[in-house]
Each structure stands twice: as structure tokens, then as C-alpha cells.
Amino acid sequence: METTAAALRTSKSGIFYGWYIVGVGFLANVASSFALASTMSIFLKPLTADLGVSRGVFSLLRSGEGIIAACIAPLVGTLVDRYGGRWLMVIGTGIVASGYFLLSHVDSFAQFVAIRLTLVSLGDSMMGYMVVNVIIAQWFSRYRGRALAISSMGVGFAKVCMPVVAASLILWLGWRQTWLAFGLMTLGLLVVPALLIVRRSPEAMGLLPDGALAPVADDLAAPKKTTLKDAKTVSQDAPWTRAEALRTSAFWLLVITFGISSIGVTGLNLHVYSYVTDLGYSAVIAATVMSIIASMQLASPLGWGLLAEKIGARYAATLRFVIQGIGLAVAVLNGNLVGLYCGFFLYGIGLGGNMVLPDILWADYFGRRSLGRIRGMGLLISQFLAAIGPPFFGFLFDLTGSYNVSFAIFGAVLVTSAMLSLMLKPPRRH
């Protein structure tokens, strides 16, 4: 009774606390963007030239990072479920920043790889999007789509700014000192907000998901009968365990649907800058293309989140893959600059759905109780698939002298994912 009363009082006064959690998630996604493939793409040419490695070999680094992240994901997911995300985010931020500081002093590609595969990969897994999305999913049910969308817009915001910021810093400071600057920015963005704001769940503060004014079915507590009178109906969370989830076809179909498409996404993210410059366009135009993609990643997630709440996340996912595929085709098959801009504009809109829709589906299908464990196991597999993308694009370029074959295969994969997404259905206990 005391918990419910506290929830009623807090929910009626001011902003629901969960939205502050969303704000920290936005900052975490901005900070995590320093480690993304799109940021690394700015470093590709100066770093490979300075350290004497090919694009294919450089791309293997992103695969290694993906594999490390995949192996860490189940452990991180378990830790989030057990202890919450606040201290994970703080410690992870410190580890990432330390890695960036060390990157500014490397003398060889081997040293660069060692630091990225240890400190940066570990720290980013502890403070990055999986931890953020699990925390937010704990705080929201009915409004999960828009909450995850707003948080994920931090990635889009960073990607809009990052090509220009990274390119400018490299020209001004050199690529080594740019990593030092990234370390300082990471600490400044996340340590204090995470410490002061992040909390494990609404129940830990005497609140309810979404700021509901009446008790909802809660998979974090003991099962009990509840009645909603004046409050709107809130989504029911099914308390699945990791072992139960692994025995469902829904788990594996989710992994395959979004995992295979991530092969092309990670590959294109790393190589799009080089692809555009290889076409004969300037570095400014290449950075503009990246900014267009990022701008749509910034602008579209909220729309995808609201659409998922309206028509269902699986239908929204189908549309996302279709739009992304059309955009890729327009960008690659059209030889002029207008086609390049328009194509990647559509591609970015579709890519924005990837920031929101998978995590909505994971939370909706498997509930909140063991979401970190289940999501972490899913990422173990999907991250391995994503790790294929960068070297796949890189070595095919080394063999053929172009990215055409890579893009054609990516297009076929997007069509496949669109069809698979229509087959997604909530799991059932037998």
C-alpha cells in the first residue's frame, strides 16, 4: 500500500522519473558513438596510411570488436538484471576513456588493436546501448517505443556531428590526439549523470512503469491479480527466463532477422566514407553523405517508435527493411550526386528503425524480469554476425577494387529480413 501511494503521489507531480533515465540514455548513446564504425571510418585513411595496413586488415579490427562485444554481452546482461546499470555505466565510461587516452600514444597497429579489443570493447559494452535499452525497458511498458526512440536519437545526434568533429580534430590535432579529446568528452558526458540519475527500476523508487496511476502486472515482483479502473491499459510483461526464451522459435527468429541485416549495416558504416571518395567525390561530400544518414537516424527513431506502438513492431520492422533496401538501391545504382544523397537519405530513415524496433520486440516478447540475460544472449549471436560485415566489405574491395558486390549482397539480405520480420510472433509456453 505504501509503494502504491508513493507511486500515485510521484506520478501526479511533475515529470515521470523514467524520462530522466531516458535523458541519461541519450547521453550514453552520444558517448558510445565515439567507438562506432561510422566514427572509425573517418580514421580509416589516415590511420591505415600512417600505420601501414590495408583496408581489409583494418576492417578485421571491427570484426574483433564485434566478437569481443558478443562474448561479453551475456555477462553484462546478467549484471544489469542483478545489480542495475548505474555502476556498470560509470565503470564502463572510465574504462573506455582510459582506452582512448592510450590510443593517443600507440606506435603500431598491433598496439591500436590490443587497446581497442580490450579496454574500449569492454568499457563500451558496459556503458553502451544494450545496458541503456535494458534499463529504459524496465522503466516503460506502454510507452516503451517512444522512450527507446528518444534515447536512441543520441546515436543519430552524434553521427550528425561526429564526421565533421572527427575530421576537424584530425586536421587540427592529428588522429592520435583526437582520441585523447574523445576520452575527455566521454568522461564529461556520462559519469556524473549516470551516478546521480540512473536507478534500477521504477519499483525500486516506489513507482510503476510509465508513471502509471494504478498497479500493473509486474514480472519483477511476485505474481498478483490487479485491476485497472481509471488508468489506461498497460502492456502485460511476461516473465520469461533465459532458459525458457532459448527454447522458443521467437528468440531465434529475432536473432536471425536483425542479425543478418547487421552484417551489411556494420560493413557499410565503416566503408561508406571511403566508398564515396572512391567515386571521385571530395571528403566534404563524403562527410555530407554520412551526415545525411546520421540526420535521418536522429530524426526517424521517434517516428518508428510511435509507429510500433500504433501498428506493432514487427510490421514496422518490415517497412523499415523495405525503405532501407530502396534507399540502398537508389544510392548505388544511380550514378549522380542527387541519387547518392536521396538514396542514403532513405537508407538513413530505414536505419533509424534499427535503433528502436529490435529492443521493443525483445522487451514485448520476453518481459522485464530477465531482459538483460535474454537480450545479452541474443547479442552474443547477432554481434558475431555483425562482426562479419566490415572485413566482408573490406576484403571484397581488396579483391574486386569496388564495393558493388558487397552492396548487392546487402540488398538481398534486406529483402530477406523484410520477409522474416513478417513471421515474427510472440512466444508461447507449451
Report on this structure.
With 430 residues, the protein is mainly α. The protein has a single domain, classed as Growth Hormone, Chain: A. 77% of the residues lie in helices and 0% in strands. The protein contains 19 helices and no strands. Helix 2 packs antiparallel against helix 9, helix 5 (86-103) runs antiparallel to helix 6 and helix 5 packs antiparallel against helix 9. The longest helix is centred in the middle third of the chain and has 30 residues, at 144-173. The radius of gyration is 21 Å and the shape is globular.
What fraction strand? under 5%
Rough outline: globular
What Rg do the Cα atoms give? 21 Å
Overall residue-averaged pLDDT value = 84
What is the rounded distance between the termini? 35 Å
The number of helical elements comes to: 19
How many domains make up the 3D coordinates?
1
**CATH architect. name:** Up-down Bundle
CATH homologous superfamily grouping? MFS general substrate transporter like domains
CATH domain class: Mainly Alpha
Topology:
Elements: H1 2-12, H2 18-32, H3 37-51, H4 55-83, H5 86-103, H6 109-127, H7 129-139, H8 144-173, H9 175-197, H10 242-246, H11 249-278, H12 283-299, H13 301-311, H14 313-333, H15 337-354, H16 357-366, H17 371-386, H18 389-400, H19 404-421
Helix pairs in contact: 2-7, 2-8, 2-9, 3-8, 3-11, 4-6, 4-7, 4-17, 4-18, 5-6, 5-9, 7-8, 7-17, 8-9, 8-12, 8-13, 11-12, 11-16, 11-17, 11-18, 11-19, 12-15, 13-14, 14-15, 14-16, 14-19
